[in-house]
Automatic annotation (TrEMBL):
InterPro entries: ARM-like (IPR011989), ARM-type_fold (IPR016024), ELMO_ARM (IPR024574), ELMO_dom (IPR006816), ELMO_domain-containing (IPR050868), PH-like_dom_sf (IPR011993), PH_domain (IPR001849). The keyword Membrane applies. CDD domains: PH_ELMO1_CED-12. It is found in: Cytoplasm; Membrane. Pfam families: ELMO_ARM, ELMO_CED12, PH_12. This is Engulfment and cell motility protein 2 isoform X1. The gene is elmo2. Residues 319-488 form the ELMO domain. One of its GO terms (cellular component) is membrane. Involved in cytoskeletal rearrangements required for phagocytosis of apoptotic cells and cell motility. Acts in association with DOCK1 and CRK. Was initially proposed to be required in complex with DOCK1 to activate Rac Rho small GTPases. May enhance the guanine nucleotide exchange factor (GEF) activity of DOCK1. It comes from the Eukaryota. Keywords: Apoptosis, Cytoplasm, Membrane, Phagocytosis, Phosphoprotein, SH3-binding. GO terms for molecular function: SH3 domain binding.
Length: 723
C-alpha cells in the first residue's frame, strides 16, 4: 500500500552525526518537525534551527516552499536564516581580514536564498554592504564577494534601487572606468550598473552621467567574452531606457540627420567596427547570451527608424515636397523645364507617373499611410543620392516601357519598406530568449538603407522575371518576401554575401523550391499512392515516436526563469532508459554532453503524470505577468502536471526542443503527437519512403518474353505489391 500523499520520506544530516531517516508529515507545522529532529540529536533551542536542502542551491525550507520536497530528498539541519544573517552581519564588520573574507564568501552564496535575503535586508544588511563599497577599502576577492552579495540581494526586489546613493554609483562606475581592474569585480560592476539603469528611471540619469558608451568600448576589445557581453548589455540598457528626445529627434534632412547623443553613439563607425571585429569576427564562437545581446542591440538600433516609419507626410510641407522634387530631378535631369506653370505642372504629373507613384498629381499623398510613412521616402532618397546610377536605371528602364510590364518604382519602394519593417520587426521590443541577430547589419554604417537598396533591385529583377503587370503586384511582393526571408535565414555575413544569396534565389529557384516542398507534402494524389501512404504512416509514426523517446532519454538542458541572463542557472531533465521515470536536477553551468542520472537528484514516476499543458495554460506563464506578454517565451513554455497537484515547468531553449519534448511526453502518455515538427517529419519520411518504393518499382526490369511456341502463346503478368 503506497504511503499517504502528505507523507514524504527524507534524510536529514547534521555535521558529525548519523543522518536521521524520517517520514515528514506535511500537515504538521515545520517548527514541530524541526523540534523533533533537534531532540534526536539532543540539540536545544530548536527555534534557532531550520532545514535546508543538502544539494543544489541549498535553499532554506519554509512553510510556503515545503510542498516541493520529494521522497528521497536529503535535507540538512542548519542555523535559522535570521541567526545566520545576524552572525554574518557581525562577521563582515569585524577587523580580521581572513574572517571577513570567509564571511563575505558565505554571504555571497546565501544571498541567493530569498528567505535569508529577507532577514539580512531587514537588519540593514544592504546599507552595510554599500558602506563597505563606498569606503574604498575592499579590493580583490573581498570586493568581488561584496558586490556579488549586493547584487544577489537587490535582485530579490525586496528594496528599491532608488535608495542607492550617488557615492555608491560613483564608486561602481569608477571600477568600470579603471583601465586595470579584476575581471570578477568588473563583471559585477557592469551587472550592477545595468540593473540600476533597467530598474530605476532616476538612476538612469545618474549612471548616464558617470558612464558613457565611449568608455565601454574598451571593454569590447578584450579577449574575455563574458566582459564583452556585460558591456554590450549595459550599452543596451542605456539605449533602451534613454528618454525619447535623447534616443531620436525628428529628422530635418534625411541625408543630413542630426541624431541625438545616444543614437549617434550607437550608429558611430567606431562602435560598430569594434563589435564587428572583436566580437562577431573574433576567434571565439558566439555564446547564446552574447548572441542575445547582439540581437537586442540590432533591434534597438532598427527601432530608431520607428518615428519616421510612423510619421505621415504633410502634403502642405514644402520641405517634404522638395524631397519628391529632388527624386524627380535626379531621375529626369537634363530634360527641358517648361517655363509655363501649366506646362510644368503637366510635365511633373507625367514624371510622377513614370516614377511609379499611385497619385500622379500629388505624390505626397502616397506617403500619408503608416507604416511606412516618411521612412519609405528616406529610403528612396538614399538610393537616389548614394546609388544614383542604379536609381536612374530602375526608373528609366521602366518608364520607357509601353507593354504594361513596367515596374512602378514609387509604389514598390513604399510597399517594400513596409515589408522590411515587418520582417525586421521595427518598433517592437526585443524578445526574451531570442538570439536572431544578423552579422551583416554590423558591417555597414547605413545597413538599413543598404539593405533596402539591395532589396529594391531584387524586386525590380523579380518583376521582370515574372513578366508581371500592375495586376500581379501582390504576387510579386509575396515572391520577394520569400526571397528575402530565405536569404536572411542563411545568415549572410555581409551585404555582398546577401546579394550572392539573393542571386541564387531567382524566381525560377523559388518555383522549384515551392514545387519540391509541395511534392514532399502532397506527393501524388492517385488512389494507389494514397493507399500506400496510409499503409506506411503507422510505421513512420512509430519510428518518430521512438526517436522522440530516445531524445528524452538523452535529456536536455533548460534555463531557469527569473535569473539575470549573464548569471544563468540551469537544470537538466531526462527520461530513464526504461521510460518509467523522469529525472531532473539543478546544474551550476550548461553541460557539454549527457548528464548522468546520479547527478539528477529529483524524479517523477511517469505513472504519476496526469497531463502536459503548453503556452498560456502553463502555471508559470500565468504567474509571470511580464512573460505573458512575451510571445516567444509563451510559445516555448510547457508544463508536466503530476500527482498530487504538482507541476514541473519548462521553457525550451528553442522551437525544435519544444517540439521534441512535447511530442515525446505525449508519446510517453500514449497520446497523439501533434507538433509542427512531427507533421513535417511525418510528411518528409513518408515521401522519402514512398519515393524509395516507387524507385524500386521503376528499376525492376521486366524480362523479355521467350520466342513464342506455336499454339502455346506466352503470357507475362507483372504486379507490384505495395505492402
Amino acid at each position: 500500500m503506497p504511503p499517504p500523499a502528505d507523507i514524504v520520506k527524507v534524510a536529514i544530516e547534521w555535521p558529525g552525526a548519523n543522518a536521521q531517516l524520517i517520514e515528514m508529515d506535511q500537515k504538521r507545522p515545520l517548527s514541530s518537525i524541526i523540534r523533533e529532529v533537534c531532540d534526536g540529536w539532543s540539540l536545544s533551542g530548536s527555534e534557532q534551527f531550520a532545514l535546508r536542502y543538502a544539494d543544489g542551491p541549498q535553499l532554506y525550507i519554509t512553510e510556503q516552499s515545503r510542498g516541493d520536497i520529494k521522497n528521497g530528498t536529503i535535507l540538512r539541519l542548519a542555523i535559522s536564516p535570521g541567526r545566520a544573517a545576524r552572525q554574518l552581519l557581525e562577521r563582515i564588520q569585524c577587523h580580521g581580514i581572513d574572517a571577513r573574507l570567509e564571511a563575505l564568501k558565505e554571504l555571497a552564496k546565501l544571498s541567493a536564498d530569498p528567505t535569508f535575503a529577507t532577514e539580512f535586508i531587514n537588519m540593514e544588511g544592504i546599507a552595510t554592504l554599500a558602506r563597505l563599497v563606498e569606503s574604498g577599502t575592499h579590493f580583490g576577492e573581498m570586493l568581488a564577494f561584496t558586490l556579488t552579495a549586493f547584487l544577489e540581494l537587490m535582485d530579490h526586489g525586496i528594496v528599491s534601487w532608488d535608495l542607492i546613493s550617488l557615492s555608491f554609483i560613483k564608486q561602481i562606475a569608477g571600477y568600470v572606468n579603471q583601465p586595470m581592474v579584476d575581471v570578477s569585480i568588473l563583471q559585477r560592476s557592469l551587472a550592477i550598473l545595468e540593473s540600476m539603469v533597467l530598474n530605476s528611471h532616476n538612476l538612469y540619469h545618474r549612471v548616464a552621467q558617470e558612464i558613457t558608451v565611449g568608455q565601454l568600448i574598451g571593454h569590447l576589445q578584450v579577449s574575455n567574452q563574458e566582459i564583452q557581453t556585460y558591456a554590450i548589455a549595459l550599452i543596451n540598457a542605456l539605449f533602451l531606457k534613454a528618454p525619447e528626445d535623447r534616443r531620436q529627434e525628428a529628422y530635418t534632412n534625411p541625408l543630413d540627420q542630426h541624431l541625438t547623443e545616444m543614437a549617434s553613439t550607437l550608429a558611430q563607425k567606431h562602435l560598430r567596427s569594434i563589435i564587428l571585429n572583436h566580437v562577431i569576427r573574433g576567434n571565439r564562437p558566439i555564446k547564446a547570451e552574447m548572441a542575445h545581446q547582439l540581437y537586442v542591440l540590432q533591434v534597438l538600433t532598427f527601432n530608431l527608424l520607428e518615428e519616421r516609419m510612423m510619421t505621415k507626410m504633410d502634403p502642405n510641407d514644402q520641405s517634404q515636397r522638395d524631397i519628391i522634387f529632388e527624386l524627380r530631378r535626379i531621375a529626369f535631369d537634363g530634360e527641358n523645364d517648361p517655363t509655363g506653370t501649366e506646362k510644368r505642372k503637366a510635365m511633373y504629373t507625367k514624371d510622377y507617373k513614370m516614377l511609379g507613384f499611385t497619385n500622379h498629381v500629388n505624390p505626397a499623398m502616397d506617403f500619408t499611410q503608416t507604416p511606412p510613412g516618411m521612412l519609405a521616402l528616406d529610403n528612396m532618397l538614399y538610393l537616389a543620392k548614394v546609388h544614383q546610377d542604379t536609381y536612374i536605371r530602375i526608373v528609366l528602364e521602366n518608364s520607357s516601357r509601353e507593354d504594361k510590364h513596367e515596374c512602378p518604382f514609387g509604389r514598390c519602394a513604399i510597399e517594400l519598406t513596409r515589408m522590411l519593417c515587418e520582417i525586421l520587426q521595427v518598433g517592437e521590443l526585443p524578445n526574451e530568449g531570442c538570439n536572431d541577430y544578423h552579422p551583416m547589419f554590423f558591417t555597414h554604417d547605413r545597413a538599413w538603407e543598404e539593405f533596402f537598396c539591395v532589396c529594391i533591385q531584387l524586386l525590380n529583377k523579380t518583376w521582370k522575371e515574372m513578366r508581371a503587370t500592375a495586376e500581379d503586384f501582390n504576387k510579386v511582393m509575396q515572391v520577394v518576401r520569400e526571397q528575402i526571408t530565405r536569404a536572411l535565414a542563411m545568415k549572410p555575413s555581409s551585404i555582398d554575401q546577401l546579394k550572392n544569396k539573393l542571386r541564387g534565389l531567382n524566381y525560377s529557384e523559388i518555383l522549384r523550391l515551392r514545387q519540391s516542398e509541395r511534392m514532399s507534402q502532397d506527393d501524388f494524389q492517385s488512389p494507389p499512392i494514397i493507399e500506400l501512404r496510409e499503409r506506411i504512416q503507422p510505421e513512420i509514426l512509430e519510428l518518430i515516436k521512438q526517436q522522440r523517446l530516445n531524445r528524452l532519454c538523452e535529456g536536455s538542458c533548460f534555463r531557469k526563469l527569473g535569473n539575470r541572463r549573464r548569471q544563468e542557472k540551469f537544470w537538466f531533465c531526462r527520461l530513464s532508459l526504461n521510460h518509467k521515470v523522469l529525472h531532473y536536477g539543478d546544474l551550476d553551468e550548461s553541460p557539454q554532453g549527457e548528464v548522468p542520472f546520479e547527478l539528477l537528484s529529483d524524479k517523477i514516476p511517469v505513472s504519476d503524470i496526469k497531463s502536459v499543458v503548453t503556452g498560456k495554460d502553463c502555471p508559470h506563464m500565468k504567474e509571470k505577468s511580464a512573460l505573458k506578454q512575451n510571445k516567444e517565451v509563451l510559445e516555448l513554455a510547457f508544463s508536466v502536471l503530476y500527482d498530487p497537484d504538482e507541476t514541473l515547468n519548462f521553457v525550451a531553449p528553442n522551437k525544435y526542443e519544444y517540439c521534441i519534448w512535447t511530442d515525446g511526453l505525449c508519446a510517453l502518455l500514449g497520446r497523439e503527437m501533434g507538433s509542427d515538427l512531427t507533421r513535417s517529419d511525418l510528411d518528409t519520411l513518408i515521401s522519402m519512403e514512398m519515393k524509395l518504393r516507387l524507385l524500386d518499382l521503376e528499376n525492376i526490369t521486366i524480362p523479355e518474353a521467350p520466342p513464342p511456341v506455336p499454339k502455346e502463346p506466352s503470357s507475362y503478368n507483372f504486379t507490384y505489391n505495395y505492402s
